[in-house]
């Protein structure tokens, strides 16, 4: 009788514990560069789609690479947040780098073979160690066309992220492939409307592929950064990708059209 009572009590506690865990909100933390950051990327628009009961924190920063984000102490903030994860059912950390890891960006560029994959894998391992759920995101395409064909110089970095996700067995959002296909299909004229500012009469030369200054919010037309329309479009794309990769998060977002 005593044994049955104890078993029943344990079962009841487990049920209560499970119910309490289910009642906790989830949290999303965004880590990346300007294509995800406030005022120049899709991150804030993505956070706006998350249910009000949940938390979404956009820590992406313009001009940062997989190396400089950590070197500046920004990753320390992410780890500090993860140490307080008990209040959340799950903390998803979306990690997207590549643009500023490319060559020609002093203090930010990383070696594609020896540094970039190691940096991405380290982020994954450290999120897991703090009971978070890492989600790797391949870099958003630039919107630079040549003779009607969209260029994609980010493929090697996207490939490195795909390989890391496979090796580490973590969810992958292939934003590079999906955004490239979408922008190629819509064409240059529509893609230009995604920029921060209208396209001038004399279009700039491949600004997106050049050296991006660190920090400052974007206020002029280029082929990399996003205005409100572009941010909303690609935030919806990331939301769809996340729901496909992790179906359990579907209920954590606002209904379509809200």
UniProtKB/TrEMBL annotation:
Signal peptide residue numbers: 1-21
Organism superkingdom: Bacteria
SGNH hydrolase-type esterase domain boundaries: 31-189
Keyword vocabulary terms for this entry: Hydrolase, Signal
Molecular function via GO: hydrolase activity, acting on ester bonds
Pfam families, A to Z: Lipase_GDSL_2 (PF13472)
Family: Belongs to the 'GDSL' lipolytic enzyme family.
Name of the molecule in the record: Rhamnogalacturonan acetylesterase
UniProt organism field: Pseudoduganella lutea
Higher taxonomy: Bacteria, Pseudomonadati, Pseudomonadota, Betaproteobacteria, Burkholderiales
């Amino acid at each position: 009788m005593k044994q049955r009572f104890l078993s029943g009590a344990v079962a009841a506690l487990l049920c209560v514990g499970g119910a309490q865990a289910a009642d906790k909100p989830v949290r999303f933390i965004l880590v990346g560069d300007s294509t995800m950051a406030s005022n120049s990327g899709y991150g804030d628009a993505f956070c706006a789609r998350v249910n009000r009961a949940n938390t979404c924190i956009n820590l992406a920063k313009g001009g940062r690479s997989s190396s400089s984000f950590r070197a500046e102490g920004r990753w320390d903030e992410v780890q500090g947040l993860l140490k307080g994860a008990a209040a959340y059912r799950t903390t998803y950390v979306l990690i997207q780098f590549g643009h500023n890891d490319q060559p020609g960006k002093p203090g930010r560029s990383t070696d594609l073979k020896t540094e970039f994959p190691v940096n991405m894998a380290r982020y994954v391992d450290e999120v897991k160690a703090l009971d978070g759920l890492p989600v790797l995101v391949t870099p958003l395409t630039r919107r630079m066309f040549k003779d009607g064909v969209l260029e994609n110089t980010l493929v090697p970095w996207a490939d490195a992220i795909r390989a890391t996700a496979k090796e580490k067995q973590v969810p992958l959002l292939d934003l590079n492939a999906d955004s490239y296909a979408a922008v190629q299909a819509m064409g240059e004229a529509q893609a230009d409307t995604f920029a921060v500012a209208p396209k001038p009469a004399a279009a700039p030369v491949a600004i997106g592929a050049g050296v991006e200054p660190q920090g400052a919010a974007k206020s002029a037309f280029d082929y990399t950064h996003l205005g409100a329309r572009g941010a909303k479009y690609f935030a919806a794309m990331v939301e769809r990708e996340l729901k496909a990769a992790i179906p359990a998060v579907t209920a954590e977002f606002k209904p379509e059209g809200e």
